[in-house]
């Protein structure tokens, strides 16, 4: 036949001639070749079909079609001939006879054994499947937990960013308030300078007025003397009055002037009455303000009662917190007891493990690097998870510290607001003082005008007296009657002047009274100033305490930052190690896959070589050379297999069992070799089928292993993503730390500005004290009515200011109470977190105990398996020795067979060659068993090392739990301190409220005094008005 390819088909042509296309050389040429590696032939089609059946595990068929006489039967015979020659392995002979002899035995030979082997393989596969599914579930659970942790980290980062934004806003508000305070300080200093200048001018004017008053007194004394002289001369000169009638006209003019002056005085009196009515209106407004103040006082008392209730609730919450703390301490004691028990168990386990290690020290030199690396990676992953948990705890601590800092910043703001309010109160006092000074100036100017008018009147009177003297001396006799009339008029004028003098004296007396009252008020103001100084000193003390607390928190924050930086460094180093280990693990997996491929290729080459040796069988020298080559290749394969031991543990155990079954089959074949060569061939075929089935199972397991590797790679990708997210979170934490440092710097600047503001405030207080003294000296000489009105206005303003301060203090107390409630809630939440952390530690301790128990059981199982493997290795060594003896015998027989072959025994040569092949296969099997035994020993050594590593990790976990318990105890102590500080703050707030109540009562008393003074002034003004009307 001549063969060609037409696409996927093989076309044949019958040349009606015999061609040498079907001999043994052609069969060996197409053995194991692919379709494109050899010329077209039916042997290529059949060999490829056989290979596809092995790889795809599907039945194959060759479809032969054509007309009658085209050669269909010949081609089918050639296909059967090809498979028969491959199976027999000898040269071309009468294969049709062999085929017809073997055909009935192919279907019925030992099917029961194959079924049993297949069932065992099926059970093993089911158990492996269940284990793989369990591992898959565990991996899925780990994935879910990792995703949850990722979400928690994102939420924490978002909350930290919000807290940072709030802190920045608060810092900006503090800076703005600082700028406003500085502007207000500048304004107050400028006002103080202006007031000092005004006070200096007022003192100069006061001195001038005193000089003028002394001169007026001297003039009044002179007038009295002149009046006495005039009365004496009046009796002597009564006859001269008649001559003075001409001067009456001038006197009438002077009378008209006096009447004008009287009208002016009446208009001034009406103005005073109008002022009194305005003051009465002011008094009415003051009464209304008093009623409002009383209502506000009632509201304040209600708020005080609410604050008392809140304090009772805080005390109850404090008792509850103390009870919870006691429970937490008891649980911590229980944890310590459990920890001691676990330490004792761990010591026992260490002793047992040391015994096991002493037994296995001789066999620890042979270890597989791949499994060690995998397990180190797992341990590193667990350590990373623990470090991530530690970083979470550190972040929780940082968030708590941030919350405490925010609370302290709020308290600072409140204190700054209090100081601003105190400064506003001082500014109000300065404004009231300025207003008083303006009123004093107006009164002083009015008094100067009145004095000027009196001086004018006195000068006019003196001029008239001089004129009268001259006229009297010249015309005394003529105008005596006129003098008498003028005397009467002068007597009336003298009476009016005396009444005016009495009124001035009464005014002086009232001014002295007002001076005494103002001095008493100045003393009260000095007492208030001393109280304000005491409050300022208390504020300074509080500020110093707060600075100390701030320094402590800064130290804590720096320690937390140091811990965070250390944790970040460790996380980075661990991440780099993780990447290195992952790269090495991937490289090892690639090496494993390449070794598997080389192993398969080498196995195929070994099978090809053995078949070629069986088929060719021309010379023993060639067999020996191929044997040496096979041994060298076996040595290389063994070294490659030793490197790839870790990943093929399950497959190798199955292969061992299959090889035991093959050994049993081979033993039966050895017994029957002498009797039945044909049965030997059938057994070989059965064994090849079993090997094919095992190879198929191996392929399926390799696929499952590849799937598991894919899943593992996916998990590693997820881990890489988590690490990237961790790095982002660390960067954000570093940025937040930088922002916190900036905030701390701004806080330091704010504290410096606050110190400057306190110093300026002290200087301002000293200047205010000087101003008060000067005002006290000025106020001593002011009139009674306006002084009383001003006093009432001051009382009203002071009462309003005190009311404003009281309301502000009440607001501050309310805000402080709310802050205390918030701190209470935060303490409760912190306690809940502490309890959750304690529960987590308890669970971790239990998990550690369970791991230790599992390690003990694994160690016991490993010891039992070691004993079994040692027994099997000893048995294999014995078998190896027996086989070596058998090989020597067989070599001797081979020598004899060579001698017989020289005589012409071809059949015996073939039998001996088949026997040699069988023995070589047995030797290979024994070598494999020895390698498997060595692998088992290495596995157990690795397992023991893993158990020791797990025990060390358990010890580390116990130490970490101890550290966590100590940290929790420190947190509980800190919370107790915070609760005590909150109680002290509540007590101080109550004392402040009591002081505010006392100040309100004092303000009410002052308002009552001011009202009584106003009533007295009204009565005096009415009496003075009635007296003037009676005088007119």
How would you describe what is shown here?
Helix content is 91%, strand content 1%. The protein has 13 helices and two strands. The longest helix has 137 residues, at 480-616. The relative contact order is 0.11. The protein has helices at residues 24-30, 42-56, 72-88, 95-108, 111-236, 248-360, 369-475, 480-616, 620-643, 649-673, 677-779, 784-903, 906-1031, and strands spanning 2-6, 9-13. The protein has a domain at 2-88. It has a two-stranded antiparallel ribbon with strand order 1-2. It is mainly α and 1032 residues long.
Mind sketching the topology for me?
Layout: E1 2-6, E2 9-13, H1 24-30, H2 42-56, H3 72-88, H4 95-108, H5 111-236, H6 248-360, H7 369-475, H8 480-616, H9 620-643, H10 649-673, H11 677-779, H12 784-903, H13 906-1031
Antiparallel strand pairs: 1-2
Helix pairs in contact: 2-3, 3-4, 5-7, 5-11, 6-12, 6-13, 7-8, 7-11, 7-12, 8-9, 8-11, 8-12, 10-11, 10-13, 12-13
Largest sheet: 2 strands, antiparallel
Low-confidence segments: 90-103, 105-109
Topology pattern, helix = H, strand = E: EEHHHHHHHHHHHHH
Cα end-to-end separation: 170 Å
């Amino acid at each position: 036949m001549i063969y060609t390819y037409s696409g996927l088909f093989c076309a044949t042509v019958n040349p009606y001639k015999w061609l040498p296309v079907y001999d043994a050389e052609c069969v060996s040429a197409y053995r194991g070749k692919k379709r494109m590696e050899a010329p077209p032939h039916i042997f290529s089609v059949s060999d490829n079909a056989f290979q596809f059946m092995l790889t795809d595990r599907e039945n194959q068929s060759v479809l032969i079609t054509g007309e009658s006489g085209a050669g269909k039967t010949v081609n089918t015979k050639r296909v059967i001939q090809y498979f028969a020659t491959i199976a027999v392995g000898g040269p071309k002979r009468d294969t049709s006879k062999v085929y017809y002899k073997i055909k009935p035995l192919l279907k019925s030979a030992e099917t029961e054994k194959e079924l049993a082997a297949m069932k065992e393989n099926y059970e093993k596969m089911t158990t492996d499947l269940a284990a793989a599914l369990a591992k898959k579930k565990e991996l899925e659970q780990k994935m879910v937990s990792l995703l949850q942790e990722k979400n928690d980290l994102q939420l924490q980062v978002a909350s930290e960013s919000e807290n940072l934004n709030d802190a920045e806003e608060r810092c900006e508000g503090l800076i703005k308030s600082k700028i406003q305070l500085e502007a207000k300080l500048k304004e107050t200093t400028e006002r103080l300078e202006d007031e000092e200048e005004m006070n200096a001018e007022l003192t100069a004017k006061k001195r001038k007025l005193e000089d003028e008053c002394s001169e007026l007194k001297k003039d009044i004394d002179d007038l009295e003397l002149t009046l006495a002289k005039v009365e004496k001369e009046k009796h002597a000169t009564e006859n001269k009055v008649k001559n003075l009638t001409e001067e009456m006209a001038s006197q009438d003019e002077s009378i008209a002037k006096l009447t004008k002056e009287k009208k002016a005085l009446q208009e001034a009196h009406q103005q005073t009455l109008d002022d009194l009515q305005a003051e009465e209106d002011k008094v009415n407004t003051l009464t209304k303000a008093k009623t409002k103040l009383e209502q506000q006082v009632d509201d304040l008392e209600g708020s005080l009662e609410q604050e008392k209730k809140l304090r009772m609730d805080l005390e109850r919450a404090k008792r509850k917190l103390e009870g919870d703390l006691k429970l937490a301490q008891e649980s911590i004691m229980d944890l310590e007891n459990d920890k001691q028990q676990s330490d004792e168990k761990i010591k026992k386990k260490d002793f047992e493990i040391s015994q096991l290690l002493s037994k296995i020290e001789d066999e620890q030199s042979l270890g597989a690097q791949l499994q060690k690396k995998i397990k180190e990676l797992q341990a590193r992953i667990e350590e990373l998870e623990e470090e991530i948990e530690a970083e979470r705890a550190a972040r929780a601590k940082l968030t708590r510290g941030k919350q405490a800092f925010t609370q302290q910043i709020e308290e600072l703001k409140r204190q700054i607001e209090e100081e601003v309010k105190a400064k506003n109160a001082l500014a109000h006092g300065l404004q009231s003082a300025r207003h008083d000074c303006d009123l004093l100036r107006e009164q002083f100017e009015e008094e100067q005008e009145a004095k000027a008018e009196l001086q004018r009147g006195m000068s006019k009177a003196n001029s008239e007296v001089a004129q009268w003297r001259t006229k009297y001396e010249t015309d005394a006799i003529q105008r005596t009657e006129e003098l008498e009339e003028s005397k009467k008029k002068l007597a009336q004028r003298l009476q009016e002047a005396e009444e005016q003098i009495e009124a001035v004296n009464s005014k002086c007396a009232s001014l002295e009274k007002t001076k005494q009252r103002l001095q008493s008020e100045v003393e009260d103001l000095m007492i208030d100033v001393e109280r304000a100084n005491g409050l300022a000193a208390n504020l300074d003390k509080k500020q110093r305490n707060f600075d100390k607390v701030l320094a402590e928190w800064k130290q804590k924050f720096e320690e937390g930052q140091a811990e965070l930086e250390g944790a970040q460094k460790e996380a980075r180093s661990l991440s780099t190690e993780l990447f290195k280990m992952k790269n090495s693990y991937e490289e090892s997996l690639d090496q494993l896959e390449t070794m598997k491929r080389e192993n398969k290729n080498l196995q195929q080459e070994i099978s090809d070589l053995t078949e070629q040796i069986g088929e060719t069988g021309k010379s023993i020298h060639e067999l020996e050379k191929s044997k040496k080559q096979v041994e060298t290749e076996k040595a290389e394969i063994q070294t490659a297999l030793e490197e790839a031991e870790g990943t093929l543990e399950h497959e190798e155990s199955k292969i061992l069992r299959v090889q035991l079954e093959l050994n049993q089959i081979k033993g039966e074949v050895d017994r029957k070799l002498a009797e039945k060569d044909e049965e030997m061939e059938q057994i070989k075929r059965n064994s090849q089928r079993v090997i094919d089935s095992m190879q198929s199972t191996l392929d399926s397991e390799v696929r499952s292993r590849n799937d598991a590797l894919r899943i593992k790679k996916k998990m590693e990708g997820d881990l890489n993503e988590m690490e990237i997210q961790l790095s982002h979170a660390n960067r954000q934490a570093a940025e937040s730390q930088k922002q916190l440092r900036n905030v701390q710097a701004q806080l330091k600047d704010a504290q410096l500005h606050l110190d400057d503001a306190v110093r300026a405030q002290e200087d301002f207080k000293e200047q205010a004290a000087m101003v008060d003294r000067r005002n006290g000296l000025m106020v001593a000489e002011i009139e009674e009515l306006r002084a009383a009105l001003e006093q009432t206005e001051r009382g009203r303003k002071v009462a309003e200011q005190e009311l404003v301060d009281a309301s502000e203090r009440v607001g501050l107390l309310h805000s402080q109470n709310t802050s205390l409630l918030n701190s209470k809630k935060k303490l409760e939440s912190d306690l809940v977190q502490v309890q959750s952390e304690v529960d987590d530690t308890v669970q971790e301790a239990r998990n550690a105990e369970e791991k230790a128990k599992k390690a003990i059981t694994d160690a016991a199982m490993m010891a039992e398996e070691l004993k079994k493997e040692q027994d099997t290795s000893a048995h294999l060594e014995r078998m190896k020795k027996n086989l070596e003896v058998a090989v020597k015998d067989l070599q001797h027989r081979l020598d004899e067979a060579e001698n017989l072959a020289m005589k012409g025994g071809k059949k015996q040569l073939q039998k001996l060659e088949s026997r040699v092949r069988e023995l070589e296969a047995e030797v290979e099997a024994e070598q494999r068993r020895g390698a498997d035994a060595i692998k088992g020993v290495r596995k157990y050594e690795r397992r023991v090392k893993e158990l020791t590593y797990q025990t060390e990790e358990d010890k580390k976990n116990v130490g970490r739990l101890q550290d966590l318990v100590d940290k929790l105890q420190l947190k509980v102590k800190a919370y107790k301190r915070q609760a005590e500080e909150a109680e002290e703050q509540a007590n101080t707030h109550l004392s402040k409220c009591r002081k505010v109540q006392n100040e309100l009562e004092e303000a009410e008393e002052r308002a009552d005094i001011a009202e009584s003074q106003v009533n007295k002034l009204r009565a005096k003004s009415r009496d003075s008005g009635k007296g003037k009307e009676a005088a007119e």
